[in-house]
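Interim report, section 4.2 (structural modelling).
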Amino acid sequence: MGRITNCFDRLKTEGRKALVPYVTAGDPEPAITVPLMHAMVEAGADIVELGVPFSDPMADGPVIQRAAERALEHGTSLRDVLAMVAEFRRQDADTPVVLMGYLNPVEVMGYETFAKTAAEAGVDGVINVDLPPEEAHELSTALRDQGIDPIFLLAPTSDDRRIEKICAAASGYVYYVALKGVTGASSLDVQSVTDKLAQIGRHTGLPVAVGFGIKDAASAAAVANVADAVVVGSVLVKKVEQNVAQSDRITREITDVIARMRAAMDV
Amino acid sequence: MTVQIKQAEGALPDDNGHFGPYGGRFVAETLMVPLRELQEAYDKYLCDDDFLNELDEDLRQFVGRPSPLYFAERWSAQLGGAQIYLKREDLNHTGAHKVNNTVGQALLAKRMGKTRIIAETGAGQHGVATATVAARLGLKCVVYMGAVDIARQAINVYRMKLLGAEVVSVESGSKTLKDALNEAMRDWVTHIDGTFYIIGTVAGPHPYPAMVRDFQAIIGREARAQILAQAGRLPDALVACVGGGSNAIGLFYPFLDDKDVAIYGVEAAGHGLETGRHAAPLCVGRPGVLHGNRTYLMEDDNGQIIETHSISAGLDYPGVGPEHAWLKDEGRAQYVAISDDEALAAFHNLTRVEGIMPALESSHALAYATKLAPTMDRDQIIVVNLSGRGDKDIHTVAALEGIKV
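Predicted structure of the assembly:
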């Protein structure tokens, strides 16, 4: 049983929902990432989503685009990100780490090499934003062979036919993108999320994480009422951007947001 | 020349949009259902006589097709080898081949009930061609253009604005065509319901590479019939410039089964392939995934897309249509590269010898023809796609020569 499944099982028995913060690895500089991951766990994160910077982040809004640009200025590569996960694992054997990024860096590394290196580093799940299940068979097989969950996105536009196909291809959890748009866009509508999650629930027993459009503790709590996990990204990355000049404040500001969300979700 | 789009059984791409290992549909989930709807609409209308008749009428009356196949007699004599014919896509309304595709996609948008059109543009030719059809059909139009390209293609920016389009300056990444495409994709994913994204080249997720090719293939169908009528035989070689590759595939596609016709796609060597400052993914890149499809890319060892350089904004793109990647691997087409300086020389040469001012993009194809023709016999024939006219480039050319216009 993998860390992701263990995590959701434990939360279920505790009657709690998973809080899943996203930060871009290497933003604003590589040295901050591993300590930040530990601090986020300390503040109440259950799973850490680590963004792999890519030069052409087509599905991301300006906040995460700029995060990728900052990380790439320091040359943060997929290999560097895997090394960060390995370093994180030296002190944290339990918290699941999920990589989120785009396919091309993985293509260049090679599926087998990537899956093997990621497993050795202690990666638990991989989300490639631009890899729908139709094109994912080969990579998913390589990941599963190494005990890593391929995690797929669902969208408001996904109909029953697609939900069925995506849930069949996924393991660990599925990630419902609650907005038609890019990361960091407008706020989500909890009622429509509730309806969509009911539709998704008819196709899968996998936990469902919800992300895109969660701005604050109130929206995190509202989503936690209906989803298994709450993913928060742009709000945190914005804290990085606002404090690029004083990086000692980044960790504190991010953990403050996480702690407030945690408290609101656990009420 | 009647439009005929329906493909033969077994033709590529396959049902999932693959040309061998290339192509496909690599996009965020939100776009998968809209792409399926586009595919279904396209499959339906390419068999619909009303649609095809309207497209045919628009291509004749609005675009001005068929475009001539001009025998460049004086230029051929100077080069001293093969006889060169120019497919005059520069004479189309809006001055380039791009309009063949925008007319087709806009008609499709109208049939699908979409009211808002978006597009990306590099040189501005596709943006102008999109703004033009949007104006004619009364559709709202937003064009994404890299800030660097806006600076070097000011005339086309103004043309788009005159046509009523909103031109959005893209400030992210390298601020060129690839970033404009990223931004247009972000717009599309945010405004799925009423928006139709007119991609200007044979790249992007399936069905775009096939659809844009099918709309551009009128170039090759006309050229094939024209050369048979004018010269009494098929050409020995085809030459076209390749950025994303739409004018090239448009010329090449109807000749793919004519195995004796050699096919040359000409990429931008920029300052030279050895300098790294170029835009020649087929010549020196390697396969990867960008903008919804698998194809040859300009990328570093970590899979990051690297900045390209070409004197011509329309070739300044780190990827290439997946069908070209396939044709390269299959050996059916050869891909070569021409430097900025060579393209510029061809620009001047054709202008002075034939009285035709070519676009800097097309000048790459012409420059390769000047190398190829002398190696061939006088009774052999080359068809070059003169994909656009050079008026838009006169400021670039003048600036390079220290002349203020």
